[in-house]
Each structure stands twice: as C-alpha cells, then as structure tokens.
Design the sequence.
C-alpha cells in the first residue's frame, strides 16, 4: 500500500468515526430503542454512517435471514420480562444489572496524598484538570458526556490486564477482573444516559477520537508499569468527578440549567421513580463515582501495603 492509499484509508476511518451524527439527521433515541424491540435494528444503529441504499440493504438482508439464523443456532430473541410480565425494554442491559444507588456514601471523602507516589498521582490529576476546566467551564452536560467516554476506559484496561495476568500466571483473580469490568460498564451506562439528553457535535467526536487513542495507551502503559499508581490516579480522577457532579447539581438547583425529566434508560437502570428528573440522575451518578473512588483507592492501598489484589476479595456489585 502506498503512503497515499494509507493516508486516504486513515482519513476515511477517522471520518467514519466522527461523522455519523454530523452527516445524518438526528435520531430520536427513545423511539430508536423501541424499534430495536420489533426487529433487529442494530444494523441501523451501527451503520448509521452508511449511504441510505446500503442501510436499507443491510437491514433487509438481516430481516430475511432472521428466522434461518435463529433456528440454526438455537438462539431466539430475548424473552426477558419486567416484574409485571411486560416485555423488558432494553437490550443493552438486563433487569439483574439494575440497582438502587447507595446514596449514603460520603461524597466528601478525600485520600490525603502523603507518599511521593500519591502526590505524583494527585498532581497529575490536578494538571489534567486545568485544560478540562478551561475548555468546559460550566457546560456541565458537555463536560459529563465527554468525560464519561474517558472514565469508562481504566476499568476495561485494568480488567483486561488482570485477566491476562490470571491466564499467564495460572492464578485466581480474587474477583478483581469482574469488579473492574463492572466499573467500566457502569461508566458506559453514564455515557448512554447523557447521550439521551445531549448530542455530541462533530468536533466533540473528533476530540474523543484523539483523546481515546492517547488515554487508552497511556493508561495501559501506566497499569503495566505500576498498577498501584494507576489505581491511585483513577481514585483522584473519581474524586474530581464527584466534585464536578456537585457543581452540576448546584447549577440545576439555582436554575442556571433546566432540570429536565430523567431519560427512560436512567429510570430503568437505577430503578428510579417514573417522575424522576435530571437532578435525581446526577445524584445517583455522583454516588457511583464515589464508589469508584473508594474502590480504586482501596485497590491502590492493598498494593501499597505489599499485597496483591487477588489477596483481598474484590468488592463486586459495589455501587
Ligand atoms: Fe461516570
Ligand atoms: Fe467514574
């Protein structure tokens, strides 16, 4: 492949990543989800960057194959129901993954950096915070949406590396793989929730594309070099997340931001009352962040005290 071809391929890949919403009409996501119930509409969602003819062809092919595919592999569409017997609305999470957030958690807790490593982690986070605060200022919605795309990375990287370590060393994980993957999934649900209210612009997609490339690799290297440092950094990042959601709440309370009704996905995921608002959602998300803060500082403490993560049972389902 010539340099020219490679460059063209890279820019096509990049445009596909950042363009779907920019080049296609906005989609009502709530309506979109209910379409998913009636037919396998994943194609529509995943390939929303394709030209209309291609889009039509993909879903037609999928529909005509549906019966054959299901009967051959023995996998039939999900039959999950609510407690009242009605059909479960979501494919992206199931009733057993939902929970009621523990709001009694202390949102003011702070790990006091004493050792050099802790100070290094603390100041790394403070340094990262400067450009982020300058960029977003009080645009909380935008801030939350973009930051959640980053927040869901460490759990996945840590979980993956512990998974590989378990395979490589023929040893148990103490449940930490699952705990970290749960954290990543929970952060991704925060993102899915904010997407119902805010819609990323093309330049925001471009920023995320670049930031993900850098952050994934930086965290991957950091976790290999020093898992306790990596967890400490995440602990401090989560402390900042708690602070920024507290600021979000202040602006909802003083009327600077409109307290819109809670998205349906949030009501089902956190088992919130039907009349909940964005404020209720931000409160449960902040509680999640406080749990991640504690889990990551704890993971760092275990290792700072000379133990391995697998020696302490992981807090699974810790919300
Ligand atoms: Fe989050
Ligand atoms: Fe978080």
Sequence:
């Amino acid at each position: 492949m010539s340099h020219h071809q490679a460059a063209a391929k890279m820019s096509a890949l990049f445009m596909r990543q950042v363009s779907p919403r920019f080049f296609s009409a906005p989609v009502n996501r709530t309506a979109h989800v209910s379409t998913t119930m009636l037919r396998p509409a994943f194609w529509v969602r995943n390939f929303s960057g394709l030209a209309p003819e291609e889009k039509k062809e993909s879903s037609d092919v999928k529909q005509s194959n549906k019966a054959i595919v299901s009967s051959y592999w023995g996998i039939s569409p999900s039959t999950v129901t609510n407690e009242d017997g009605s059909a479960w609305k979501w494919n992206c999470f199931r009733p057993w993954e939902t929970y009621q957030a523990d709001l009694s958690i202390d949102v003011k807790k702070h790990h006091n950096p004493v050792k050099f490593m802790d100070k290094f982690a603390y100041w790394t986070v403070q340094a990262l915070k400067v450009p982020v605060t300058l960029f977003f200022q009080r645009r909380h919605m935008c801030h939350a949406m973009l930051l959640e795309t980053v927040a869901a990375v460490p759990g996945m990287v840590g979980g993956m590396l512990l998974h590989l370590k378990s395979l490589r060393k023929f040893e148990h994980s103490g449940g930490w793989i699952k705990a970290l993957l749960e954290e990543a999934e929970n952060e991704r649900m925060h993102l899915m929730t904010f997407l119902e209210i805010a819609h990323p612009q093309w330049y925001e997609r471009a920023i995320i594309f670049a930031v993900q490339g850098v952050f994934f690799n930086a965290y991957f290297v950091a976790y290999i070099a020093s898992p306790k440092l990596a967890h400490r950094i995440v602990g401090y990042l989560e402390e900042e997340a708690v602070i920024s959601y507290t600021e979000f709440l202040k602006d909802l309370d003083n009327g600077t931001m409109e307290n819109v009704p809670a998205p349906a996905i949030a009501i089902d995921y956190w088992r919130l009352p039907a009349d909940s608002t964005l404020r209720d959602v931000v409160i449960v998300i902040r509680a999640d962040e406080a749990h991640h803060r504690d889990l990551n500082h704890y993971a760092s403490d275990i290792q700072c005290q000379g133990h391995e993560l697998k020696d302490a049972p992981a807090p699974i389902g810790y919300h």
About this structure: The pocket of fe (ii) ion (ligand 1) is lined by residues 148, 151, 187, 190, 241, 285, 289 (CB under 6 Å). The chain has two domains: 3-70, 95-311. The chain has twelve helices and no strands. Residues 262 and 280 are 8 Å apart (CA to CA).
